Every structure is written in C-alpha cells, then in structure tokens.
Amino acid sequence: MAYLLGIDVGTSGTKALLIDESGKGAARAVSEYPLYTPKPLWAEQEPADWWRATCESIREVLKRAGATGDKVKGVGLSGQMHGSVFLDENNQVIRPAILWCDQRTAAECAWITETVGRERIVELTSNPVLTGFQAGKIIWLRNNEPEAYARVRKVLLPKDYIRYLLTGEYATEVSDASGTSLFNVRRRQWADEVLDAIGVPREWMPRVYESPEVTGRVTAQAANATGLKEGTPVVGGGGDQAAGAVGNGIVETGVVSVSVGTSGVVFAFADGPVVDTGLRTHTFCHAVPGKWHVMGVMLSAGGSLRWWRDAFATEEKNVAATMGVDPYELITAEAAQAPRGTEGLIFLPYLTGERTPHADPHARGVFFGITLRSDRAHFARAILEGVAFGLRDSFEILREMGLPITQVRASGGGARSAVWRQILADVTGYDQVTINVDEGPAFGVALLAGVGTGVWQSVPEACHATIQVVSTTPVNPEAHRAYEPYYALYRQLYQHLKADFAEVATLMQ
Fold first, then answer.
1. What pLDDT is attached to residue 413?
2. Beta-bridge partners for 25
3. Cα angle vertex 135, ends 129, 140, to 5°?
4. How far is CA 370 from the centre of its chain?
5. Per the count of CB atoms within 10 A, which of 188, 246, 425, 479 is most buried?
6. What is the DSSP letter of 229?
7. Residue ranges of the chain whose pLDDT lies below 50
C-alpha cells in the first residue's frame, strides 16, 4: 500500500501524519519542543529542535503504520507561518528563529511602511506590515544584531528550513510567502520593489512554487535521518492556515473555517485577491493554485486556555492524570457550570498582542468584571467566551466585505470541545459543523502531496474525495440574543484600554 506523508512544524511540536491514497489516516505521531520568551512579548525557538522533532515523528509514524520509507509516495510540508530562520554561507543557523507571535518589531514595521509608502505597500503585498511578519524581523536583526545580520545569506520560513534539510533546496510556496510583507500576493511572486526599498537582497529569498508542485526530493542524508526513501518527492505544501484550510475542505466559495489552535483563525476562500479596506484581515494566496483567501487572525485563542491550564489549573491537571483524560476536558466541563455571560466577567484574550481586528502589539490580556462571586468556573468560561468574541470580530469583517458564508467548519483543538463549539455557534450566530478528519494542516499537505504525485488531479478533487461533514452544532437563538450586549461590551473595552496598553508597554521598556 502506498502512503502520503504530511508534516506540520507547529509552535508546540511537529506532527507527522500518514494517509493512504483514499485519504484514510494510517498513523500519526507528534514530537514536542520548547518555546522561549527571553523578554516580554518575544518568542523564539531553536530550528534544530524542529529538525529533531521532524526526524522523530517521521520514524515513529512509519513504525506505527508498520510501513517502510519506500511506501511513502510523496511528502507535504506545513508549519507555523512568518518565522525567520537566518542561515549563513555554510547554511548554519545564525541565531534562534523569531516566531509569528513575537512582537518586538513595531518600530521596524513602521519604518518599512514609511519607506515603501503606506498605500504602496498594500498595493504590492495586499496587507499592512505587521509585527508578526518576516520583513520586520529581518530589519530588526539589522538594527539590533548587526554582526549576525552581516552573516546572513538566506532567510527561510520554519517549514522551509525543514524542506532545506530534507531536500537541499531553498524553496517556499505562495501561501507562506504571502505572510512575509515581501511578496506580491496578486502576482504570486516576490515583491522586488519592497526588497529593494528596504535593502534586503533578492538572493536571500527562496524560489517560490504553487503548493502542490514538487519542490525537491529527499536526499540520501535526510533519508538516513528520517527513514524515508532517497528521492521521495516533497511538494510545496502550505503555511499552517492555508494547509489547514485544505484539510478542512475550504476550497470553494461560501465554505468558511474557524480554527481554534494556539491562535484562532477565521478563513474564507476567495476567487480573487480581495482586500479589506480597513486592513484588519489578511489577504494571502491560497494553497489552491490560482486562488486566494481572506483570514482574520487572533493570536491567543487556544493559547489562552493553555495559559490558564498551565498557570492556574494544577488541580485539574492532577485529577486528569489520575483519570487518564485530557485536562482540557475537565476545564471545559467546569466552564459549562458557569452561567452564560459569566455574570459580567469578560476576558480580553490579548496575551501576545493582537492582529484582527486591532493589529496592536501592545494589547494585553484582561479579566474585566471580577466580583466575589467569580470562581474558577467563571474564569474558565470567560476565556472560552472571550475567544469566541474575538473570532466573531473576523466574521463581522467578512460580512462587511461581502464574502458569502454558507457553512462554517470548526477545527483545531478547541473545536473538539462540545462546550466551546456551542459557545462559538451562539456568539457568532453560525452553526458549527465538524468533518470526518481532524488532523488540520498535516492532512492538508498530505492531500497536496497526493495532488503533486498524481493521486488526484486537483486540490478540490482531493478534498471532495476525502472530506465529509459528520456533525452540526446549531445556534441557540436565545443564547445568541443574550450574547449580543456582552459582545458589544467586549468591543468597547479594547477602545477604552488602548491607550493604557501603550502606556504599559512604555513602562516595560
């Protein structure tokens, strides 16, 4: 039996997923690694950890499937977007990678915007220059670590560093390149005018492919490290959001996904490069060749609940360990005991700044409305509701843009919770459907590998052949009406606190 391998280089770990040529999952494996925060609002990882985890997860998934590397027909790569891996002339990593959620580059982003021109940068890249994107990180290195900058010869995105180690090729694909502020999203090629204006050499950028295209083949050295067969084709793949959208079947107009992972994303398919006039959402190339997508991104969705688990839910973690269940099951069950609206306790989920709709690196997390009646259940539910409010912001923007929403598919770790899915439905006003697969980006890039190696003729064909809706969480109209004033208050709180967030950032500096 032949298999397709999807690899997802995530923020908390790397997942390897094997599927057969019918799309059925054969085995999965995950290898984790740490995230470092050497200063407030900084986020870094060691690329060597990604490679170690990639090799471990590939070997483990082959073992679990009882398969050898020669049974793998093709490999697809996905990963956390926007991060910067700096390589020297010997292809050695110069410093830890600066990640998507890092907020250190506000000054550099402002300089890039001024240098290129606010309107021109949007014309060229279809997006504003944001702190999470790659361009600001390159300029930050130049400004703050000039000795390291002087050694740079290549800049790669996280998954593309793994691609280099697998194939020896410097390559990326259109969906991930779209999130660099260095890429012409309309033309699907590097924006030379931007690179020239800010002084970044064009030769530092890898070659760009469409997502299902073969970008290289597994080298003998990589085959030895991973257990794959030398010469196995590796396709472009996709940034985690575009790849996850393929894995959820978001490949046609009207079908929208809401993903609750570390970040939270509302993702809509688009036939053309439509741009939000308020620049609150991102317009990127889709992993479907010749198509685009619009997405709203909140930085701390499931990450907010993970923070709560790690900082305050020691008891739940201990009990879950004795029961053999996930601590999140106990936390969300506890949250279900609190009343809708948590008696006015509202959570702003801006633990690592925010993107949509505020694009504010200084925003901070807030619990508002605490009283003597507020208990652990209230706080847990406030987090679930606060994340849902943040995701609704993106749905409101899609409506303003006139993008049709005929079906919403819920995915990611948070969507596994029936409690959280119901809150999402009631807050947003859209039924939440689930599908027969829940492997996200790894499944999406496995499908892309299938397209690239001829198993399917197109990305939509691959999705239609393998993905079906299996459940629906309908909106409770009464609950939706009840949430309206809470959502309005949620939106007001940011406006009231915006200046204070900036003040706190100044104090911290």
1. 87
2. 19
3. 110
4. 32
5. 246
6. P
7. none
